[in-house]
Amino acid sequence: MTQELRIVPTDRPPADGKARKVADFRPSLMLGEHGLCPGCGEPVALRILLETLQDLGIVNNSIGVVGHGCYGSFVRIMDVDVLQCLHGRAPSCATGIKRMRPQTAVFTMQGDGDMVNEGLQEVLHTAARGENVTAILLNNGVFGDTGGQQTATTVLGQRTKTSIEGRDPGLHGHPIPVADLVASLDGVGYVARGAVGTAGSIARTKRMIRAAFESQLAGEGFSLVEILTMCPTGWFVGAPQGPDYLAESMEQVFPLGDLRARPKPSGAGA
Ligand SMILES: Cc1ncc(C[n+]2csc(CCOP(=O)(O)OP(=O)(O)O)c2C)c(N)n1
Ligand code: SF4
Ligand SMILES: [Mg+2]
């Protein structure tokens, strides 16, 4: 029997009058408007993080540790227990929480400025100690919150407020691929890099976040998901151009995918 193909026109409101706006799809754990710039990738990352906590059924057994950056304002609208730490120190605060509450799922949310500039030693030591926490890095290659200055992850040639002619390796050095560094350390259970520039990459990144929490719940050690996020304001591009700019610049330098897969269960074949 052939199935009837129902084509839903998208050039006019639904005939049944049940048009839904973007806000109607907001996850219940997001309590209100995020207030960030149009085209910003960080609210998308927040959304898939919150959906993952819900999917795993760990909302009431989770604590988030948030750094300082534009995403810092999410503490107002996340219906999850959160703590906001000094710049760059989230991995150490997460360590303390996890050691006191080993049954709680503990995660950090940090930007590239927060994690890779201000707090590089914090994340590397926390990873090397094998602390059983999950770090979420929102990497947009700029200090967005303070006006779009260059960070340690700004890619070569990228224009920022403090490298207006483009990042020059002779003058500014090279970007630091923190997720690759973390992936090389013993004590680490899972590391991946995703992005939120396309529907496909958002879906893949959500699976990475889930894998990181599953790794933590299985006690495998430190986990990190780096998420490349659009910052059209800091990049001097229009909001609609953000995803293309992300793909053409950051994704070329920071390839997407698993950087350290979860350990195979003992007894599993090769
Ligand atoms: C110790 C300290 N240094 C500097 C600042 C100023 N500061 C606040 S947010 C921020 C930028 C953070 O950038 P990032 O973590 O990349 O987040 P984004 O805004 O890009 O999302 C800076 C430098 C601060 N609050 N505390
Ligand atoms: S400055 Fe960049 S990171 Fe901050 S809210 Fe605007 S687009 Fe997002
Ligand atoms: Mg940033």
Written overview of the protein:
The protein is of the alpha/beta class. It has a single domain, classed as Thiamin diphosphate (ThDP)-binding fold, Pyr/PP domains (Rossmann fold), CATH 3.40.50. The chain is built from 10 helices and 9 strands. Strands 2-1-3-4-8-7-9 form a 7-stranded mixed sheet, with helices on both faces. Strands 5-6 form a two-stranded antiparallel ribbon. Strand 5 and strand 6 (149-150) form a beta hairpin. Helix 1 (42-56) crosses helix 7 and helix 3 (112-118) crosses helix 4. The longest helix is centred in the C-terminal third of the chain and has 19 residues, at 199-217. It starts with 41 loop residues before the first helix and ends in a 10-residue tail after the last strand. The model has no long low-confidence stretch (mean pLDDT 94). The site of iron/sulfur cluster has 12 residues, from helix 8.
The helix/strand series, from N terminus to C terminus, equals: HEEHEHHEEEHHEHEHHHE
Summed over residues and divided by their number, the pLDDT gives a mean of 94
Number of domains: 1
Q: Write the CATH fold name.
A: Rossmann fold
Would you report the number of β strands? 9
Structural class: alpha/beta
Assigned CATH superfamily: Thiamin diphosphate (ThDP)-binding fold, Pyr/PP domains
Helix share, percent: 25-40%
Low-confidence blocks of residues:
none
